[in-house]
Write a structure and sequence with these properties.
With 489 residues, the chain is an all-alpha fold. The chain contains 27 helices and no strands. The chain is globular and about 75 Å long. It starts with 23 loop residues before the first helix and ends with a helix.
């Protein structure tokens, strides 16, 4: 299939019938933004063998990656390559990143190795470096960075930013100032992201004066204008240091730089004003957000309700919740959970249950977080049977990303301790049956508690030794002695 490289001003409405009748991105998101619906629309497009412009493919890949829809992005990229779309080096760098996110680092490395030498420039090297940094593969990242320097590739701030982010995530902020000095010595211009990482590194070692010197240096340099992210970063640092007055000054600067009314900037303002404890400013920003975005997103309501709950303004949180509920098109269980959590914390169990059932009636089933909230309440109130039911429900639902939900070791230990104290063998065994649905190995501590429960209850079980052997578990000496009386044939 021939793909034309045309300008972005080309109108898709005027193209011939050989081409897709609508913009590719519009086609893929026609039924919503879930991975299932996007994959379905992508498969339909592929079957039609309709043509699209090359710029559309690039634009669609960018939007898919923004939404973290990496598998559809990979399929689109590979399909277009098979249909003779010529990939630029920039396209190859993007494809490498998608491969890493879908098939893993080894696959990305193999893709890089198989690239023609002419494609192995700073873009593809930078993409592979970024993959190593995201996976916290320090040795490989450092070796590749040195290789890039040896090859005299034209380095920008981007690879340095990747390495500095890696050091931040691996708890090595003290290494970042040296990288900044290297960038300066190599005449590599620092960008706003560089300054943000540098400030965070200094804040991590409690050098707030150093953070302020970085801001002053950025202003003096003049080449990089601090955007709203710079001041949200600064405000967050001040909040962490409990310098609330300075934090609020930084937030005022953030607002000045949000002339384009970026929704993310409003989200940071709500979160950070909430953390400063300034309820008046929090409501003022909320009103500004509502004016800028009359059709207010669920995530905005979630942030606001969480901030109000944290500031103990339960009536305000309830009012905000009712406002959202009356106009929402999709009932978001996360927003319900914010209020359920507030009610549970205040001991208002009936109200928490009422919101849960209300959400269920509106099509939002309780998720693992919902059951965690009720679990925490029942554990604090020593209502063990109901707590175990919550564990069972949370395991049954699982996590939103498809992974299993597993109760914390503290919860497991506390419940097993209760059964041991009450000499409740049936309760302990029933709980373990539930737990086995979430974990592959129960572990020595759980079996030791079970053995003590049998001993305390004066019960016997000839199969416990066999169960230990099957689980490949070794218990302590005290439990081994107890087994002599428990495992009676």
């Amino acid at each position: 299939m021939a793909l034309l490289q045309l300008g972005r001003t080309k109108s898709v409405a005027k193209r011939s019938k050989k081409y897709l009748e609508e913009a590719l991105y519009t086609k893929l998101f026609k039924e919503g933004g879930s991975e299932v619906t996007v994959r379905h629309q992508l498969n339909q497009f592929i079957k039609t063998r309709k043509r699209v412009y090359k710029w559309e493919v690039g634009d669609t890949l960018r939007k898919l990656r923004q939404r973290k829809l990496y598998y559809p992005a990979l399929k689109l990229s590979e399909t277009m390559a098979r249909r003779s779309m010529i990939k630029t080096v920039s396209d190859q760098a993007i494809h490498l990143d998608i491969v890493a996110k879908t098939r893993g680092i080894s696959a990305a490395e193999n893709y890089f190795i198989e690239l023609p030498e002419s494609s192995k420039n700073h873009l593809c090297y930078g993409a592979l470096l970024n993959c190593y940094c995201k996976e916290l593969m320090t040795e490989k990242a450092e070796a590749l960075m040195e290789k890039m320097k040896e090859l005299n590739l034209p380095l920008t701030s981007m690879p340095y930013n990747s390495v500095m982010t890696l050091y931040t995530k691996t708890g090595q902020p003290e290494r970042i100032p040296a990288i900044i000095q290297e960038m300066k010595a190599s005449h590599i211009m620092l960008d706003s992201y560089t300054y943000n990482v540098w400030m965070r590194a200094l804040a991590a070692v409690n050098d707030i004066n150093g953070v302020e010197r970085v801001i002053d240096e950025m202003k003096r340099d003049g080449r990089v204008a601090g955007d709203w992210t710079t001041y949200s970063n600064l405000a967050s640092i001040y909040v962490d240091a409990r310098s609330f007055e300075k934090a609020e000054k930084a937030l005022k600067e953030l607002e000045k730089r949000n002339a384009c009314k970026d929704l993310s900037a409003f989200q940071f303002l709500i979160t950070l004003y909430g953390r400063t404890g300034n309820l008046l400013e929090l409501y003022r920003v909320w009103r500004s957000l509502r004016l800028a975005f009359p059709k207010t997103a669920n995530i905005s309501y979630l942030n606001m309700i969480q901030a109000l709950v944290n500031l103990k303004d339960l009536p305000g949180a309830e009012k905000c919740f009712r406002e959202w509920e009356s106009g929402c098109s999709i009932y978001d269980i996360r927003i319900a959970n914010a209020l359920i959590g507030a009610y549970a914390k205040e001991g208002l169990l009936e109200k928490a249950e009422e919101i849960k059932e209300q959400a269920r009636r509106r099509g939002a089933k309780p998720n693992a977080k919902t059951w965690e909230i009720f679990l925490d309440y029942y554990m604090k109130n020593r209502e063990v049977k109901l707590a175990v039911d919550c564990v069972a429900n949370a395991i049954s639902v699982g996590r939103g990303d498809g992974k299993k939900w597993v109760p914390s070791s503290v919860i497991v230990s506390s419940l097993m301790g209760h059964f041991e104290q009450e000499k409740d063998v049936e309760g302990a065994e029933g709980f373990l049956e539930i737990l086995k649905k979430a974990v592959d190995n129960l572990g020595a501590e759980v079996f030791e508690s079970l053995i003590r429960t049998y001993a305390a209850a004066g019960r016997t079980s000839p199969v416990i030794r066999r169960r230990l052997k099957m689980e490949n578990v070794e218990v302590n000496e005290a439990c081994m002695k107890l087994l002599e009386t428990i495992c009676v044939e």
